[in-house]
Amino acid sequence: MSLKPPKKSDLGKSWMKPRRDQPKRMQPEYHLIVTEGTKTEPAYFGAMKDEINRSYPKRIQLDVLGAGDNTLHLFQKAQQRVRASANGYRHVWIVYDTDEFPAEHVNEVAWLCGSASTEETTYHAIWSNQCIEVWFLLHFQYLQADIHRNAVVEKLTRAMESQGLGGYQKNRMDMYQTLQPYLEIALANAKRLDAQNTDRLPANSAPGTKVQTLVEKLRPYLS
């Protein structure tokens, strides 16, 4: 078999096959995380992004956007970002709290994520009822009672202090690093809570969270 390069006159002809010694360049899988908050959630997922993008830049790339908006507006901003981006996002994660927003809006975001998903891009509704601190608390204990978000924060502060981690404050910037050693506990508790909320709409799943869905997807890339 000749190892000579193909003639210019032969290039483009149907019988010319691609060189097998020139492998296709694989593009990384792009993810977009759009959060309701502008500090707490971006700091948490931003630290996760930095770890993954640094370790696996050719396999997966994360973008994090703290949109500073809620429910339906948050979904719309995510769609706008997808349309404006040249990356071709494979997964789009909409991270939001239920707080005291209208139940129909909370539930509609989950429905919109399903209806907007295509073979190229999957949208995910990553809600927490009532707040993302439910996910944080699950790193230390299971939560079954439907309590106000202020009570969740109080429980979280006590749990962190009991482990010598300092108290919890909104917008604490080191939550990802602080909670990382307890991740397996959080995943187990979140799955148990998710099973309890089977067949319930997001607004009726209190307490509840879907953050574990996002974390489990990225788990293979986390130390």
Order of helices and strands: EHEHEHEHHHHEH
What is the number of beta strands? 5
Strand content: 5-15%
Average predicted local confidence, pLDDT: 91
- Tell me the number of helical segments per DSSP (H or I, 4 or more residues long): 8
Helix/strand class:
alpha/beta
Overall outline: globular
Question: Roughly what percent helix?
Answer: 40-55%
Radius of gyration: 22 Å
Placed side by side, the strands forming the largest sheet appear as 2-1-3-4-5
Stretches where pLDDT is under 50 for at least 5 consecutive residues are none
Describe the structure.
- This protein has 223 residues and is of the alpha/beta class.
- The chain has helices at 40-55, 71-84, 103-116, 133-137, 149-162, 175-179, 183-196, 211-218; strands at residues 29-35, 60-66, 91-97, 122-129, 208-209.
- α1 (40-55) links the parallel β1 and β2.
- The chain is globular and about 45 Å long.
- It starts with 28 loop residues before the first strand and ends in a 5-residue tail after the last helix.
- The relative contact order is 0.15.
Write a short abstract of this structure:
The chain has 223 residues and is an alpha/beta fold.
What are the SSEs and their pairings?
Blueprint: E1 29-35, H1 40-55, E2 60-66, H2 71-84, E3 91-97, H3 103-116, E4 122-129, H4 133-137, H5 149-162, H6 175-179, H7 183-196, E5 208-209, H8 211-218
Parallel strand pairs: 1-2, 1-3, 3-4
Antiparallel strand pairs: 4-5
